[in-house]
Automatic annotation (TrEMBL):
It holds the Pfam family ABC_tran. The lineage of its organism: Bacteria, Bacillati, Actinomycetota, Actinomycetes, Micrococcales. This is ABC-type quaternary amine transporter. It comes from the Bacteria. Belongs to the ABC transporter superfamily. It is an enzyme of class 7 (translocase). PROSITE patterns: ABC_TRANSPORTER_1, ABC_TRANSPORTER_2. GO terms for molecular function: ABC-type quaternary ammonium compound transporting activity; ATP binding; ATP hydrolysis activity.
């Protein structure tokens, strides 16, 4: 498996398939017994383990904040280990709190117990980013949150990743989360085999084998529509008789389908701001799903 710089790769598979074990081998919490893992060409086994881990961000589901440390002190742990000056560390803490949308003046001196679960999770991400690591490992970081908080955290993290462009390996049990967040998805089987390693769209459109198909489950077409923007469909002319509710070209075709079902209208208008740019009906959405799909990317190595 080759992961490109700035790529967010999702590991997804059943319990016990080796997702977390594989991730922990990257920072040598678990030592690889064979093969090689390289970061920027360097075999991780050739590097000092402690030094390696200080340059790899690590976020876990339980968050793992030190309860007797303030939020600022939690974020500052790794910079202090690396010998950063007090001023540089303080500036970095303030910068990261703002990055994860927590006001330093309000949150820096609080303790973890004074924050909500979602806020603690954001601090966990900030702490992992503290030393500006090139690689981040995230082990079901949103798994313990409620569905509403989880969706907000996913959206915030995608916004953050668009700015910071880290190379991230993200472990999840949730295939929907993998589809929403990943640049590519590695689907692992119970045999710890990579059954498919490809983009979310290609995994949904062209599963490599029956196992991947079964793992995707029902509703693959709807999942695909959530990945395709409205402007990926061919518009008809704007329809003055269509409902006043419109869809944006940047919304997903899944949202457009929901709107068609909810309104019961034969078509809905697509509006860019105040200007109608066309209309969309079920046939146009179906045509997108029926378009030619690529051959599946199968198992084994990828370079």
């Amino acid at each position: 498996m080759r992961i490109e710089p700035g790529e967010l790769v999702m590991f997804v598979g059943p319990s016990g398939c080796g997702k977390t074990t594989t991730m922990k081998m990257i920072n040598r919490i678990i030592e690889p017994t064979s093969g090689s893992i390289r970061i920027n060409g360097d075999d991780v086994l050739s590097l000092d383990g402690n030094e390696l881990r200080r340059h790899i961000g690590y976020v876990i589901q339980q968050i793992g904040l030190f309860p007797h440390f303030t939020i600022a002190d939690n974020i500052a742990v790794v910079p202090k280990l690396l010998g950063w000056s007090k001023q540089r560390t303080a500036e970095r803490v303030d910068e990261l709190l703002r990055t994860v949308q927590l006001d330093p003046a309000v949150f820096a001196d609080r303790f973890p117990r004074q924050l909500s679960g979602g806020q603690q999770q954001r601090v966990g991400v900030a702490r992992a980013l503290a030393a500006d690591p090139p690689v981040m490992l995230m082990d079901e970081p949103f798994g313990a949150t409620d569905p509403i908080t989880r969706e907000k955290l996913q959206a915030e993290f995608l916004r953050l990743q668009a700015d910071i462009g880290k190379t991230i390996i993200f472990v999840t049990h949730d295939f929907e989360e993998a589809i929403r967040m990943g640049d590519r998805i590695a689907v692992l089987s119970e045999r710890s085999q990579i059954e498919q390693f490809d983009t979310p769209a290609n995994v949904l459109a062209a599963p490599a084998n029956d196992y991947v198909t079964s793992f995707i489950g029902q509703g693959a077409a709807l999942k695909r529509l959530a990945l395709i923007p409205v402007n990926g469909a061919r518009f008809g002319p704007a329809d003055a008789s269509a409902p006043s509710i419109t869809i944006s070209p940047d919304d997903s075709l899944r949202e457009a389908l929901d709107l068609l079902v909810l309104t019961g209208a034969p078509r809905i208008n697509v509006a860019d701001g105040e200007r109608a740019v066309g209309s969309l009906d079920l046939a146009a959405i179906s045509a997108v799903l029926g378009a030619e799909v690529p051959a599946p990317q199968g198992t084994g190595e990828r370079s």
